[in-house]
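Input/output pair, single chain:
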Amino acid sequence: MKWKNVLFVVFISAATAIGSVWGFSKFQRMQTAGTQEPGKLPANYASFYDKSTAPSSAIDFTAASASATPAVVHIKVQTKARKVTNNLPNSPFGDLFGDNSPFGDFFGGPRIQTIPGERASGSGVIISDDGYIVTNNHVVANADKITVTTSDKKTYKARVIGTDPSSDLAVVKIEASHLPYLVYGNSDNLKLGQWVIAIGYPFTLDVTVTAGIVSAKARDIGLGRSKSNGSSTTIESYIQTDAAVNPGNSGGALINTDGQLIGINSAIASPTGSFTGYSFAIPVNIVKKVVNDIIKYGAVQRGYVGISFMDITTLTDKQKEELKIDNFNTGLYVGGVSEDGAAKAAGLKKGDVITAINGKAVNNSGQMSAVMGDKKPGDKLNVTYMRDGKQYQANLTLKNSIGTYKQMTAEEASSTKLGADLVTLTPEQSSKYGINGGVQVTNLRDGAFKKAKIQNGFIIVSINGQTVNKAEDARKILKESTGLIQLRGIYPDGDAIYGYPLRLDNDGDNNSDN
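Output:
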């Protein structure tokens, strides 16, 4: 009986002690709620301790650099001296001495000025073992001669396959085989803070490697539009990094730590012209689409929605109030809709605010470019937009836009140097081909067009971005153009837009060699 009393007392004492400890612990937790305990991380940091995703060792760039540098090349370009005429008022003595005589020049009148030749350099990335190379359009634009030097010091003559000023990309080709090349990565998978490596030939130095992190994605810096007079077709969706990029790096590679190509270095943000903290690269997912189209067609097959828009993130509060969108902080304000565009057919109107495409948020123009960068004519899009406070969705099919052109009268002209007759399309032909006009190449013979591999029946719609209204306009533009120019157009039996690079000397002659 005595032992039972003892056990009972022990039990009561233990229970009381345990209860006291539990109660105090609970009290303490209540008192410390809302504060952080040193050394403890919340659940959203669990990935840091996931051994399957943790790196096996410290970040090391040597393997990626070793695999990528042989596929990055040094591109050197040369332009010839050119003569241009300054259209000053005619000299009163022009008829007596001739406007181009020393006396005519002394008294005024048209003066012939010589622009000296130039040499420049940049970088490029080999993308196939048979010598296709991607670089920036601004590296090779107007070049009369292009040479490529590989990492093993071999030098090749290069020719331009095609250019795309809208994305600032170009493809050149060297005649070689079994070359090292870079494998495409996926720029959509990039994450902020991810390590990246820039490779190129800055300041004409030998191949140079720098490293940094991804600072931003889908960055719109307005650079392309400033160079293309505000063209709505300009692609602005850069990867922003803090990897050091300097003059000469243009066209070089931006790779990830797996050695995959994720971008083409294109620009820097600098008041001095040299690196001061940020650089910008064209995402490889845009590069792939542009390169494939240039190699196949000579021009990019770009799908157009048929709208003009304003990035709401760039508007002031007053501007948003005037447009009656002051309750929006992001999105794209539709400022206009083309009558024959895909957006018009789908029901979009001026004043709508686009917020998503194919379920992917479009908060700014950079994201719009990223979404549209790999789209082609015939692709279908689901567009989410706001109108009068309500959300709508529209399904549209992208069209193959090649610009707006006036109707042309039938007029024929021929050029010995160009080696073809140029004929303006009749309204009936334009309607049949689904365009608003163009100049057709006929009677092809030996000459510049044939050297450029243009075929009979090709319909020119633009030359160097200039609308061709009639045959004499086409001949005038060709005569006044020098260096590398771009013809764009279609063939009667297809919907694809084709591009052909022509090399023109001052007298309108063609030199297909680079």
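The mean pLDDT is 77. The longest strand covers residues 208-219.
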